[in-house]
Amino acid sequence: MNATQQITFLGTGSMGKPMVHELLKKGYPVKVYDLRRDATRTVVDAGAVWADSPREAASGSDIVVTCLPLPEDVYANMMGEDGALAGMHSGSIWIDTSTTDYHNTLRIAAEAEKKKVVSLEAPVSNLSHMGADFANTSIYVGGPEDAYQRVKPVLDVISQISFHVANIGEAQTVKLITNLLFYTDTVVCGECLALAQEAGIPLQWMWQTINASRAFSVSTEQFMPFLFDHSYDHSCTLEIGHKDMNLTTDLADELKVALSLGRIVRDHYDETLRRYHRYDGHIIVCKITEDDNHISLQIPGFTAPSKYGANPDYVRPEEMVVDVYGRMKPKLPNAYQAAPFEPAPPQQTLIQALIDYMAWINYVIYKECLDLGAGMGLRRELLAEVIRWSVGTCWITDHYDEYQPPEDIVSRIGAVDTQLRLMTTEKIAAAFKP
């Protein structure tokens, strides 16, 4: 594949749009279609060509990429008289970068095969908050390896790293696993921050302390700021998180994997969707804790370091921090340094319990993720590598074999003196009590 070949993008939302921009910058001709034409305005202004239907967009293209929110959206864009498949030619390649139901992908792939169109699933994981904006993503590919090698130059433009996992279905499993790690940590961190605030521990100081401990994760470091500024993150909707959690538990049912902690987190997402709007920002899952306890976890004057937060004019720093694995993230400005705080002995005891609890949660959910991957026949070594390059990575996933979980942590958290109602932590304490 080279930059003279035509690429079609179906879906130009928060993930698709920056990928199109990267391709245009590298000289690829790109046609686009989106249900909302206004969503394509910036990429059309940059040189992409608008099409009036998925079929028209796919006509003459060598690669058709779908980047859509829900499985039914992918099916609607690919199938039918005006679907992309009707306009694709023999030998072209369909790449689905959506996080979707792999059975849906297989149904479409079966129809594509009749036209000698090759199908690849290629879900995308951010390596930092909205890493798609600057090609800081990883892509997991399922399908024929020769087709993966043909499109790899394109994937290299829109991501930092890609993996050929194996068959269709297995890449989706990896993506659901990385999201399960992320979603679990987000929900639990919100409840832990509420406990810290109740004890008089400044939230920004607690956030910084968590990020310097074994409770660190991409979720705590880069997504909690959207709780602190009450924007709840405009880059992704609650609907998408809820969809992913239900796809994950459906897969666990299919593979007969217990997923005990994962199902508790799924229940939290179900309850969130009952209370709030599906298009709310996905960090709205933490608002349950605020509303159940009539509290606010907003930090006065704090704005998340992202244009997807409370300040849409925020400009991301160009300077990057690179770790020992080569993963990178934008350097956090010095203004986000917390004010000094000296915890009293009871506060220090609580801080340690919260850090131990969050690390233990990451350990338990990682074990469940490994079980889910094993159910799909994925090697642990592969899972560890792809998780390392994902939004789900954390201190525990990087140090899993050396970590020794404290045996008393559930009892210690259960013994915390609190007036708060913490829906998910209460369920975890009941399910995992000694």
Assembly category? single chain
CATH topology of the largest domain: the name is N-(1-d-carboxylethyl)-l-norvaline Dehydrogenase, domain 2
Helix content percent band: 40-55%
- Please state roughly what percent of the residues sit in beta strands, choosing from under 5%, 5-15%, 15-25%, 25-35%, 35-45% or over 45%: 5-15%
Helix vs. strand class: alpha/beta
- Number of helices, where a helix is a run of at least 4 consecutive DSSP H or I residues: 19
Strand order of the largest sheet: 3-2-1-4-5-6
Q: Which radius of gyration do the C-alpha atoms yield? A: 22 Å
Query: What is the architecture of the largest domain at the second tier of CATH?
Result: Orthogonal Bundle
Distance between the termini: 56 Å
Biggest sheet overview: 6 strands, parallel
What's the SSE pattern? EHEHEHEHHEHEEEHEHHHHHHHEEHHHHH
The mean pLDDT is: 95
Shape, please? globular
- What's the CATH superfamily of the largest domain, by name? N-(1-d-carboxylethyl)-l-norvaline Dehydrogenase, domain 2
Give a description of the structure.
The chain has 434 residues and is α/β, with parallel strands linked by helices. The chain has two domains: 7-166, Rossmann fold (3-Layer(aba) Sandwich); 173-431, N-(1-d-carboxylethyl)-l-norvaline Dehydrogenase, domain 2, CATH 1.10.1040. It is built from 19 helices and eleven strands. The chain has helices at 16-25, 41-45, 54-58, 71-78, 84-87, 102-114, 145-158, 170-198, 203-211, 218-222, 225-228, 238-255, 260-275, 287-293, 345-375, 380-388, 395-398, 409-414, 423-431; strands at residues 7-10, 30-33, 49-50, 63-66, 93-96, 118-121, 124-126, 137-142, 161-166, 320-322, 328-330. The strands form three sheets. It has a six-stranded parallel sheet with strand order 3-2-1-4-5-6, with helices on both faces. The chain has a three-stranded mixed sheet with strand order 7-8-9, with helices on both faces. Helix 8 packs across helix 12 and helix 8 runs antiparallel to helix 15. The protein is globular, with a radius of gyration of 22 Å. The mean pLDDT is 95.
